[in-house]
Amino acid sequence: MLTSGQHKTLDFIRQYIAREGYAPTLTEIAFGLGVSSKGSVHRQVQALAESGYIELVAGRKRGIQLTEEWREAATSIPLVGCIAAGLPIEAIAGQDKLDLSPIMGTDRYALIVKGDSMMDIGILDGDTVIIKPSDTARDGDVVVALIDESEATLKRLYHIDGDMLELMPENQNMQPMRYEAERVRIQGVLAGQLRFYL
Length: 198
Known about the structure:
- It is built from 5 helices and 11 strands.
- The protein is α+β, with helices and mostly antiparallel strands.
- The chain has 3 domains: 4-73, Arc Repressor Mutant, subunit A; 75-104, no CATH class; 109-194, Umud Fragment, subunit A, CATH 2.10.109.
- It is elongated.
- A hairpin with an 8-residue loop joins strand 9 (164-168) and strand 10 (177-180).
């Protein structure tokens, strides 16, 4: 059984690796957890290694690795069957796992949506979107667009006449936004979406 501190440390390591694609240092773990003692973090990490949750690679600054079992656990959940959204169907339990790694892989990051500009395609305030980093996108892609290096927004992208871009909200009550292309920097393309109810 892990202690509360070990759980927090393991969760931080998992989330950091999923977000950044590499392991955190002890200093980064301490900072992320709000812990002043790097020695305390070192003890937590050693305990996780001894319990088989992580592996430590000697001589590497970022030498923390999730073990194979916990890498799989971090990106898959049980797939137990089908559920009807129309007429009821027979409930048949399955034995598979749903692999989330295509959208939760190490080259992705997550953003929490604030606002309702994308509600007409089912992206609601409070949802979590999974973004694939990219500095280019095709017409019609939903993108993270950084405007004037200061404000980021999630919108559908269109290239229009000349050197102009249109950022289209998916909300019939909102108007599209148009900018000179040089004012907009694409930071990623929508890869998936999560919504939690509990």
